[in-house]
Amino acid sequence: MKFIIIDGNALLHRAWHAIPPLYTKKGELINVVYGFTMIFLKVLKDLKPTHFVVTFDKKAPTFRHEIFEKYKAQRVKQSDEFYNQIPRVKELLEAFNIPIFEKDGYEADDLIGTITNQLVILNPLIEIIIISGDLDLLQLVNKNIKVCTLKKGITETIIYDDKAVQERYGLAPKQMIDFKALRGDPSDNIIGAKGIGEKIASDLLKAFGTLEKIYEKAPEATNDQIKERIKKILLENKDEAFLSKKLVTILKDAPIQIELEKCGLEGFDQKKIIDLFQELEFKSLLSKIPEIIKIQEQENKFVGAHPCVCPENINQCLEVQPLNAYKLIDTKEEFEKFLKELEKQKAFCLDTETTSLNPFKAKLLGISFCWKKREAYYIKVQSSKFKVQSLRNILEDIKIKKYGHNIKFDMAILKEQGINLQGTDFDTMIASYLLNPGTRAHSLDNVVFTELGHQMISFEKLVGFKIPKNIDEKKLEQIMELISVQKMAEYSCEDADYTFQLVEKLTSQLKEKNLWELFQKIEMPLVPVLTQIERNGIKIDVKILEKLTEQLVIYEKQLTEKIYKIAEEKFNINSPLQLKKILFEKLKISVNGIKKIKTGISTAASELEKMKGSHLIIDSILEYREISKLKSTYSEALPKLVNLKTQRIHTSFNQTITATGRLSSSNPNLQNIPNKGKFSKEIRTAFIAEKGYKLIAADYSQIELRVIASLANDEKMIQAFNNKEDIHIRTAAEINECKLNEVSPEMRQQAKAINFGIIYGMGAYGLAQRTDISQNRAKEFIEKYFEIHKGIKNYLEEIKKMAKENGYTETLFGRRRYLPEINSKMFQIKNAAERMAVNMPIQGTAADLIKIAMIRINNKAKILLQVHDELVFEVKDNLVKETVKLIKQEMENFPETKKFKVPIKVKIKVGDNWGEMKEVKS
């Protein structure tokens, strides 16, 4: 028999500090519940208990407060955001049928002491494990009882038995009471014998055994036995030491009674567990439940429990659902009949199955279709190409609406088959993102689970094992082709079916939250645009990058030698441990203000930046790291990513990642190609136009400042933009109270930092760091700025107020970001949310604007890249002039730009490559 006792409050507090704030899409804070649940499930899985209870403290004072009024008096009460989560934790325990013990006047530790005492009497052979973060419980350890404590966070644990306690403290567990009585415990306001530390307390107990013996022998002890100074401390603090002993002693006779038969792990309320996990959006944790219940059945073989919840029947714990009608189309007759039905549909959902996520390398295995709930069809196509072509007319019919989840991928796959998928009307991944932009959990599995309460067939189950992240593409292709067509049909049909079911539900939510227009007019029309841009790719001159790599290798070697010379020894520059020894032990560089991590002082680039100028070696290490990154991330990596078929690099643009609505780029990320610093020009020069073509880069000029000027209706800034003034020179003149022609480059740079810093909620400290001025001077600048730009000041205050009232902030085009944490009582969390509330409408509006421009231009000019506020085009030499004019017209003047109170301007450059471009006037 293995009995687990969880010290509830200890684990709740550990979860509170270890897990950052997590919110459900309804705005419920759940970080404590999530952390506790993680530990709870880990205990069930790893320790395989037969019996289980959880204890909690009560709010009422305990008997210890009667003995000592100031007991725990200095403890700061946690915020309501912590305590409000405790009922949810208890709800979880009830679903698992776990008994909860709590009692007015007694701490959880006393209940644990009492329970362990009663259990050992009931069963002398019982094994008890106490789960806690509190080392006070070590006094209970004996042959029956162990204590499992959390070392750091909620994942690392250590189990204490008799031997482990002896090894750590040199004392027996029963001596831990006297040990704490002597050294005290500031966290509980237990005084102890003030001046006696951990080592002296341990030495005294090793010598005399108990607190009583120490005090019995102390008056007559020789200096060799107890030093005079220690003796004096002991005698002066005798009353405090014995009082402390009463306070730290865990009771074993609290007025509670354990009933062993009620503590058995049985009768889990599976439906309640799944419903609760769904409500709390614990999708990743739900997958652990079947395994845990299976373990409990095997370990306990209990009677009367519900049947095991396996991945196959986990959905049976939800509402009883009618059987799905999923059909594999594998004969010519069936296919022709299916085709006639498909032609009649005004809308349908489709899902492609492939051997790879790379559209250029993937083989199309099959396509599933659904136009009615719980009915879906799978067409196997990998060995029968004519079937795909037979679908062309329907798939290319713009009048028939197509639904999908990440339909951009399906478009790209079909494009490789020569089919231009038209009529893409609804992407459930994008809909989920607009409704919940603060999370990245937009996979079909997650969305279906959260919205429909259904657990999808996992990819792991389809394949039969967990696929390694770095698996070779050829190997993956072989694995995918070996999957039986029946299994693939069921998997794919389920995807199409549940995507179809999501459309109706997500449509009503989008309309309810006024996001329908944004979805229909911006996000969905952007999908085919991005598909085309990804397909276009951009040409790379591999020779330029190879030559650059040679230069970087030489330069890296020179820097290495320089660093060795400064350090006066050779070491591994890339090893944080070795670097720390050189910087802080050998060279004695000051660590004031430098972040500390688990392994000591941090040597991260952000921390080394703070030390810049303090020692010659710091600047050299930073430069070394920059060169190493340029080499590994760009000059060496990019040539390997050139598609052999197209001789271009093809990135993926993601619509559902950033919380502000900006696009992101991956595989590879072409939005972070450096444009400043050493060798950045050389890297950009490698991005070239085809022979007979030119690259055109069109960049929205100071778009975020133009956006805030309009949103804030700030007269001064609007006037400056309308007068075509340099906004940074104007700001510099205003805050420095000088004429425009008296503004120095340094003053302009400071003004620029203020203008853009305001958008990101930057304060005086941040401005001082960026501009190398004093914090007081920075504060004066900001105050002066807000005196002049009253519109911006009022707007920032108003936007925070609205976010607090509504729980979200939004762009000019209705895009929302939900910020439930803006009403947090925790200063840091609230401040961060306020900064997001200020930044999102500005950055998000700019993102919406460029998306509209992309939709307008795509069919008129070939877009290669989107880099935040910039678009890169490839145009024939003889069409450059007219295309520049077209781009400028389309990006600056369209109906949506009329919403702005300042002109929207685009700066255009032209060149043979991205690194050497010249500005042109249209």
TrEMBL record:
GO molecular function, one term: 5'-3' exonuclease activity
Keywords: DNA damage, DNA repair, DNA replication, DNA-binding, DNA-directed DNA polymerase, Exonuclease, Hydrolase, Nuclease, Nucleotidyltransferase, Transferase
Domain 5'-3' exonuclease per the UniProt entry, residue ranges: 1-266
Catalytic activity: DNA(n) + a 2'-deoxyribonucleoside 5'-triphosphate = DNA(n+1) + diphosphate
Domain of life: Bacteria
Top EC class for this record: transferase
Pfam families given in the database record: 5_3_exonuc, 5_3_exonuc_N, DNA_pol_A, DNA_pol_A_exo1
Record keyword DNA repair present: yes
Domain DNA-directed DNA polymerase family A palm stretches: 680-879
Biological processes annotated in GO: DNA-templated DNA replication; double-strand break repair
Domain 3'-5' exonuclease: 326-511
Keyword Nucleotidyltransferase: yes
Enzyme nomenclature, EC number: 2.7.7.7
InterPro entries named in the record: 3'-5'_exonuclease_dom, 5-3_exonucl_a-hlix_arch_N, 5-3_exonuclease, 5-3_exonuclease_C_sf, DNA-dir_DNA_pol_A_CS, DNA-dir_DNA_pol_A_palm_dom, DNA/RNA_pol_sf, DNA_polI_H3TH
Gene3D superfamilies named in the record: 3.30.70.370, 5' to 3' exonuclease, C-terminal subdomain, 5'-nuclease, Ribonuclease H-like superfamily/Ribonuclease H, Taq DNA Polymerase, Chain T, domain 4
The protein's role, per its UniProt record: In addition to polymerase activity, this DNA polymerase exhibits 3'-5' and 5'-3' exonuclease activity.
Family: Belongs to the DNA polymerase type-A family.
Identification of the protein by name: DNA polymerase I
Biological source species: Candidatus Kuenenbacteria bacterium HGW-Kuenenbacteria-1
Lineage: Bacteria, Candidatus Kueneniibacteriota
Gene name tied to this protein: polA
